[in-house]
Amino acid sequence: MYKSEFDKHIQSHSITNALLFFGESNFLIDMYTQMMSNIEDASILKFYHNEYDFNSAKAHLSQASLFGDRNILIIKSEKKVPKKELDVLFGYCEKNSENIFIYAYYGEDQKSYAKAYDAKKVMSVRFFHPKDFEAQNIVMSLAHEKKVQIDKYTISHLLHVHNGNVALACNELDKLRVYDRIITNKDIEHLVHGLAEINLDDFFKKILAKKEFLDDLQNLLEHGEDEIRILTAFTSFVTQLYMFNIYIRVNGAANAMDILGYPAPKFVVDEKAALSIKFKPQVYYKLHELLLESELKMKSSHIDKSAILFAALIKVQKLL
């Protein structure tokens, strides 16, 4: 089922105690996992990625709670848990309606879980990236919860700054909640600029696409970005692309968990993989050499840092 249908089950209190969350939106998977496991005095056992142990998971669901409370098992993993083991764990939920099992799958194999179980026993929910109005509603709901005074137009601007990334927009609310007044677009521009790495990522992509970037660079600097930070962030961006390049040449396809150490949205992985293979290893070597030399020059000389940064980025485009 999809999020809209699952939301109706939440409203009608007709949710099963066996839940399987998957899909393109890691943010929504996390949000609903937290929502469904937020039960007072419950005994919760969580496994993250490679920590999963079948025997421990089985023991947690099969045993009765010492204090008569509910046992909750949560498995968060990019790797698929064997179906035989899932069947056993979901089976324990069927035997004991008080216990809850949530399997949050962050991998890319969406088809496996679309119709894998009987919805009356196991609710399998696929989460897509939130549409604009959904993203606004999510941020608005959390803003009310955190008592941040902000309207939908300012939320829309906040999401725009973060290129629609709901997780980053929600993270900003903790910073905004200290203001005991209505948050405005000017507040967003003043407090949030430059904090979304994805904004810098767009700037870096433009450079690597050999497009004109001077206006964007001036805009970043005028809004308080530091030249050294831009340069080091670009070096990190290039390094990450090189890691993708190496992994793909060795294994044939990208795997976010192996490369980055954490699951990333499929569209982000696909985009970085496609960009990484455009450049040969020799180009990556020359880029790193140039960027590191420029960073050293920027930190050890009295030459205008902006001039060094601009010259370095021009040279980058000549190397491509």
Q: What report would you give on this structure?
A:
The protein is an alpha/beta fold and 320 residues long. Helix content is 58%, strand content 9%. It contains 17 helices and five strands. The protein has helices at residues 3-11, 26-37, 54-62, 83-95, 111-114, 132-145, 152-161, 166-171, 173-176, 185-192, 197-208, 214-222, 227-251, 256-260, 266-276, 281-300, 305-319, and strands spanning 18-23, 43-48, 71-77, 100-105, 123-127. Strands 2-3-4-1-5 form a five-stranded parallel beta sheet, with helices on both faces. 29% of the residues are buried. Residues 194-198 have low confidence and may be disordered.
What is the compact description of this entry?
The protein is of the alpha/beta class and 320 residues long. The chain has 17 helices and five strands.
List keywords for this structure.
3 domains, Rossmann fold, alpha/beta, Zinc Finger, Delta Prime, domain 3, 320 residues, Helicase, Ruva Protein, domain 3
**What spatial order of strands do you see in the largest sheet?**
2-3-4-1-5
Total domain modules: 3
CATH class group of the largest domain:
Alpha Beta
Alpha-carbon distance between the termini? 46 Å
CATH architecture of the largest domain: 3-Layer(aba) Sandwich
Class derived from helix and strand content: alpha/beta
- The whole-angstrom Rg is 23 Å
Low-pLDDT stretches: 194-198
Shape: globular
**Count of DSSP strands:** 5
Residues in helix, %: 55-70%
Figure out the total of helices: 17
Mean pLDDT: 86
